[in-house]
Structure formats: C-alpha cells, structure tokens
Write a structure and sequence with these properties.
Length: 774
C-alpha cells in the first residue's frame, strides 16, 4: 500500500521513496527468477480459484478434499467459523479485486456479472458482523472500485452501472441493526433478513464482542458513506471506535480483548496485538491514512506507545493484563499477530518490525507453516494452519520498505510450502496439524482475497500492474480502497480525542515519515544485522520434556489419564518426597535382557500447583442460557488438549443438553437419535476421554461435557483439570469440557427439573457480579 490521504502527515510515502538508496547497493534477485515466481503465483491462484468455480460455486467456500462446496446447514457445524458463511457466494465476492490485481480482467468481468445476477442478501441466516463487513462488504466495495476504474478506461464493463455498490449499500443497511445497543458497540451477529432483536432473528442474546469485532468497521463503513453520501455508516462505525477509546485503561492506554456491548465493561482484560484486538489497531492507523482525520493517528500513537512499552519484548509480543501490564499473562503467541510487522512498517518503526518478522520466519521454517499459536520458546501450542496470509502480508510490506531481496526469498519459501504441503487436487487445503501435515477440508475465502494478492505484488513490478497500487490502501482483508476518499467528506468536528501526548512522549516518527539516513545512516547492511541477531532463536528456546513420540503429560492430577496411559505401557509413577516423581518400568517382553528399574525425575508440582493459567491452561465455562437461568449461572470448566478449541471461538458454542446412554459413553451410544445435534453429558471413568469423545461424535453429538466421578469434587477445591488424548486425536473435532462433580450436578439437576436446558460453552470470561459462578 502506498500514497497518502490529503491532510495526513506523510507516512505512507515511506513505501515508495524511502529505500531507493539502499536498494541500489543491495544484491538484487534476478529479474527472470522474480518473473518466474510471479507466474508461479498466478498458476497457483488459477488452481485455487478454478477449483472453487468448478466444484463449489455458488457455495460460500470450497471443501478442497471433498471437491465440493461448503453450504451452511448441510455440513456439520464448525461453531463460530461458520458465521462467515451467509449463502452469498463468499469466496467469489472476496476474490473480486484480486482478479484485477493479477490482471485477470476477463475473469473479473465475468465474476462481476455472476455476483450481480446470482447473489442475494435477503437470506434467513445469522452471520458474523465482523466477518461479513471485512469479507463481503469490503469485497463488494473493492469490486465496485475496480469495475468503476476499468469502465472509465473505456474498454471493459461499459454495461456496469454501480450494481456492486448497490449491493454494498443493501448489505450495509442489513448490518446496521447490530449497532442498536445502549453503548453503540455492535452485537457480534446479525440475521441478514430479520436483524437482531426480531422474533425470527435467532440472535440478539449475546452480551459481548471482541475489540477487533467492534473496532474493524470504519474503513468499509466510511468508504460506503463517502461513495453513497449516506453518512450513517461512517458515523456509526466512528461511534463504536469512540466507545473503545473511552473505555481504554487511561493510565496506560491499553484495551482488553472482549467487551460488554451494553455496559462497555471489559469481559476479558488480556491485552495484546493478536486475536481479538489486532485489526482495531490496524484500522486506527489506516483510518487516518484513508480519511485524513488526525484523531485516528493520535489514538493509534497513544496505543502504540503502550504496546511497545508493555507488550513488545523484542522479538516477542506477549499478552499482558490491561490493568497490570508489567507481567505477561500467557507464554504463547497466536499467528494473527504476524500482521503487526507490516503495521509497524506503515508507522516507520522498522527495527522491531524486522525483529518480529525474523522470529516468525524462523518458526515458519521449523514447522513449514506458522502454527495457529506457539509458545515463547517457539514450540507448537495450537497446531492448525488455516492458510493465513498475515505473514505474507508483513513480508510484502517489509520488502516494499527495504527492497531487501531477502524478503523475496522469504516469499519464495511461502510459495514452496504451499505447493508442497497444502496443494491438493481441488485447490489448497488448510493444515490441521503442522507437525504431521494432516489436511483439513477447508479453503477459506481469505486465502484467495489476501494470500495471492500479497504474493503477486511481492514478485511484480509496479509498472506491470493494471492499476497504480500507491493510490490505494489495503483493508484488513486486503481489499483496495482509494485514497481519494479523503476528499469526499471533511473530518467530523466532534470526532475529538480527549488525549494529548506530551512532548516528552512523542517519538521521532509520531507525525512524520522517517528518512533512510535517520534509520540506517550510511549502513545498507543494517537490516541484515538486525535479522542475524535473531536467527538462533529456536536453538536458544527452552527444551520441552516429551515422552514416547511427543506425548506431553500435564502431571497436576494424581487421577488423570496420563497415568493410565503409562500403566498401559507397563510403567508406574511413584511420588517422591522431594516433590518429584519416579518413573519405573521394564523393556518389552520380547527383550531377553530386561532393563530393570529406571527412573526420571520430573520437576513438576504434584502438590499445590500454580493456577491454571500459570500452567498454560486456560479455564473454560459452561453457561446455562435457557429459562429460568438466562445466563445467570456459569460453571467453571476444564479444557481438553483435543477437539474443537473453544479459546478460538470468542462467542462460544451453544447446544441443548441430553444424557448419554450409557452414562460413561465407553461403548456404542444407545440413544443416538436423542444425542444427534445435542450437547451430551457423560461421566468420567472406565475408558479414556478420547474414546468417549469418539463414541459421542460418531453418534452425532455437537459437543460433550464430561462430569467427574469423584463424589464431592469441586472447582473451588481442585486445580483446573485438563483432559489429554491418547496420542492420536486429530479425528476428534467436537468441543469438549470437563466439570467437577459439584458443578456437573448443577446441570444434572437442571435437566431433571426443566427437561429442556440450553448451554453455552466457551472461554471463561470475567463475568459480571450478577452472574452466579461455580
């Protein structure tokens, strides 16, 4: 992205002008090789897009392993992920402006015709406000802007009369009811036909939303307002940003991750730059660039100072508590923060951008892809990789800023990994586990909207593009909005930031673009020196203790299943007096000379262990949402190391309760008709949790709640419990939680008394004082 909005400080010209002196003295990747990489990206795009159009269209997304379209309601629910699907040909709309960037103008005109003729928005379906805004509204706006540009050239689309803009306006009005809250923060979901609070809407009961969900509306809504002269959209999005700014922790300018949409109280107070917050920061900076309003820059700068003071531990970016930011509250990072080096490039803060990007590259090289989450010592924390584009995005921005051919090599490695490990017969498949390479039947629309756009731009000279890329800004979904929108409407005079940075807090790049001499005075190798300091990070990471092909055993519960696994191997754990344990066992029976006893000391807390979060275990919750409870009863639950990861589903997974028969779910489920599509209660014991989960999943359960079989056990007296698998659990995809006996009895009693009981499984937030918690 290049160029800048009128009235804005000259930040974005950095990309076009800053690094010419350095590029001249650097070794340049050969033009032929770069051209070959560009052509390879085009061929990969053709394979992905062609597979969608052949096997999936008009469905929202392609299932690349099944070679068919994903239609919501016809496939097993994936929880929040499916909220992006609205029966509006999502992938086609999300890909529109990518077709133009890749110079596929015939395909673009055909795609516009298909959208105009086939797409309808009056669908009785509940969708994510955030995802629909960035993917569909942004896609329609980007497609309209490209169509309008090509029409003005007098060759193509002479028939086009703003049909995509009319669709965008229709969609904008369908999203507006989500903002009908006392605070102005939007509901997380809306029914495209019935809105939020109508009797047929099937939504409107949510109490909170993520910071990014509320704060990532301004670019698309403001563009819609300025293209249609309907000011309500920009005003509405700005109001939500005003609320988030007002609710920041004023002592340090940090924000939390989840906020109550009615009261404005923070529900989750962890603060970082990854999932749940990421694009809020991005949109403050880009709103300033696109709209020319200093308010957004002032807010971004205030947040950025706080991020660099508390969250940034170069090259790491670790979450902190917004009210006590001097201590990191978790030891892992999620892959969405990979966008942040690119945002730092836009601000002109190159050194930390280079450092964090290099760390991410080293993690990527170790695992072939960037895992969904990884620890501070760079081990896999969540093993999935859904073909996210954020690392490619930052690679592109760093290359544009530095012209360092090193970043072309990074891009080449991305291309090679995608072709070798993600390419399948019908497109590209997400990776379910980067350690094994197992695929997932999923190709999200953002893969076409973003990944190929950034890779193509990385390997293409500006003169070969069908548009001047410096005249546009990228949205968080990489849709192109023209910087000329800054002249379409003056900044609103009441859009003021009640914060003024003192001169002592302002940094050298707060309001002006840095120069090459300031950053790298007469030293074109400085970028390499920064990277080289971080190339050994993975070797320096702490070694993790693993047993038997990587099975990791959290040993904080003397009754937990890892002990059963070890006993099945002929091994026994004996607690010792020095708070360690002894592992005893023998060689396999066929070994003529038994090893005899051997011992390993695990430095692990068997007594008085630290709280769950300190062990890396995030507590979950079961909230009873049906009458007469209506969300006032919340039960503390333990997570599983397998199944659907509820910590990645901001709004949880809902279901109606039913008992498993047999109750311990260790055999064939007898009441499959009752279990199908329900949240099933089952008891611990007699077999592994993984075996229970497989039996229930096979019977059609939408999720499972396992209740402890130890009489009187309670979360108040016990350490947070985490269920582990049996070594191969990638086939288990339903959500799973564990309740101690006292909490489980609450659900059993509720089911006895009321018969119909609905629950919500999710990450455990800090519930309001009027919520009963156990």
């Amino acid at each position: 992205m290049g160029g800048r909005a009128r009235g804005a400080a000259p930040v974005v010209l950095l990309l076009a002008l800053l690094w010419a002196p350095l590029a001249a003295g650097a070794a340049v990747v050969g033009a032929v090789e770069r051209s070959q990489l560009r052509d390879q990206v085009v061929e990969m795009f053709d394979h992905a897009y062609g597979s969608y159009m052949k096997h999936a269209y008009p469905a929202d997304e392609l299932m690349p392993l099944s070679c068919r379209g994903r239609v919501r309601g016809m496939e097993p629910s994936r929880g929040d992920i499916d909220d992006a699907l609205g029966k509006f040909s999502l992938t086609l709309i999300d890909t529109l402006d990518t077709l133009v960037v890749l110079n596929k103008l015939d395909e673009f005109e055909d795609a516009v015709r298909k959208v105009v003729l086939d797409v309808r928005l009056d669908n009785d379906v509940v969708v994510s406000v955030f995802e629909t805004n960035i993917r569909v509204l942004g896609g329609l706006l980007g497609g309209h802007i490209m169509a309008d540009m090509l029409k003005a050239q007098g060759v193509r689309l002479q028939w086009y009369t703003d049909e995509l803009l009319h669709l965008a306006l229709d969609l904008g009005y369908r999203l507006l009811p989500a903002f009908n809250t006392t605070s102005g923060l939007p509901y997380p979901r809306v029914n495209l036909r019935y809105g939020v609070l109508g009797p047929n809407s099937r939504t409107g009961t949510e109490l909170d939303t993520c910071t990014a969900c509320a704060g990532t509306m301004i670019l698309e809504f403001a563009a819609l307002s300025r293209l249609t002269q309907e000011t309500v959209f920009e005003d509405t999005a700005r109001r939500a940003l005003d609320v988030l700014w007002e609710k920041r922790q004023k002592g340090n300018n940090l924000v939390g991750t989840v906020i109550n949409i009615h009261s404005g109280d923070w529900v989750r107070r962890d603060s970082g730059v990854g999932a749940g917050i990421d694009s809020y920061y991005e949109y403050l900076m880009k709103a300033y660039i696109l709209l020319g309003d200093d308010t957004y820059l002032e807010r971004f700068n205030a947040h950025y100072v706080a991020i660099m003071k508390y969250i940034s531990q170069p090259p790491l970016l670790l979450n902190v508590h917004m009210h006590n930011p001097t201590v990191s509250i978790r030891s892992w990072m999620d892959s969405l923060l990979a966008f942040f080096p690119g945002l730092q490039v836009l601000r002109g803060d190159l050194k930390p951008a280079i450092e964090t990007h290099e760390m991410l590259y080293q993690v990527t090289k170790q695992h072939k892809f960037l895992p969904e989450a990884f620890t501070s010592d760079f081990a896999v924390y969540w093993a999935q990789h859904p073909l996210r584009p954020e690392f490619a995005e930052s690679t592109y921005f760093l290359y544009q800023a530095t012209r360092d051919p090193y970043y072309l090599q990074v891009g080449q490695s991305i291309v090679e990994s995608l072709n070798e490990y993600a390419r399948v017969a019908c497109g590209f498949a997400a990776v379910q586990d980067v350690r094994t390479g197992r695929h997932e039947d999923r190709m999200d629309s953002f893969f076409l909207a973003e990944m190929f756009k950034y890779l193509y731009l990385l390997f293409t000279e500006k003169r070969d593009l069908p548009l001047d890329i410096d005249d546009y800004i990228f949205t968080t979904e990489a849709h192109l909005l023209p910087l000329s929108l800054s002249t379409a409407r003056p900044p609103c005079p009441r859009n003021m930031t009640m914060f003024h940075m003192g001169h002592g807090e302002e940094q050298i790049f707060t309001r002006s673009c840095p120069s090459a001499q300031t950053l790298f005075p007469n030293n074109p190798t400085f970028t390499r020196n920064i990277r080289d300091a971080h190339k050994q990070l993975l070797q320096q990471g702490a070694q993790r203790l693993a047993l038997f092909s990587g099975l990791e055993f959290p040993l904080h519960d003397a009754r937990m299943e890892p002990l059963e696994i070890l006993r099945g191997m002929g091994l026994t754990l004996l607690p010792l007096g020095d708070r360690s344990v002894q592992l005893t066992g023998f060689h396999h029976k066929q070994d003529a000379s038994p090893l005899g006893l051997f011992s390993l000391k695990f430095i692990t807390e068997l007594v008085d262990p630290p709280a769950g979060e300190q062990q890396g275990i995030s507590p979950l919750a079961v909230q009873v949402i049906s009458p007469p409870f209506l969300g006032r009863m919340t039960l503390t639950a333990g997570p599983a190391q397998f199944g659907l990861d509820l910590t990645k589903h901001e709004h949880g997974v809902k279901g109606s309760l039913v008992l498993s028969d047999p109750f311990q779910a260790c055999g064939t489920i007898a009441n499959q008709a009752e279990v199908r599509g329900k949240m099933v209660l089952a008891q611990r014991g007699d077999c592994m949790f993984a075996a229970k989960a497989r039996n229930l999943q096979k019977a059609g359960a939408s999720g499972a709640i396992f209740i402890d079989d130890a009489e009187g056990s309670c979360s108040e007296d016990k350490v947070l419990f985490q269920m582990v698998g049996d070594g191969s659990t990638s086939d288990i995809v339903i959500p799973l939680v564990f309740l101690f006996q006292k909490e489980g009895q609450v659900l059993l009693d509720a089911l006895t008394q009321h018969r119909h009981v609905d629950v919500l499984l999710g990450a455990k937030p800090m519930f309001p004082d009027n919520t009963d918690q156990l």
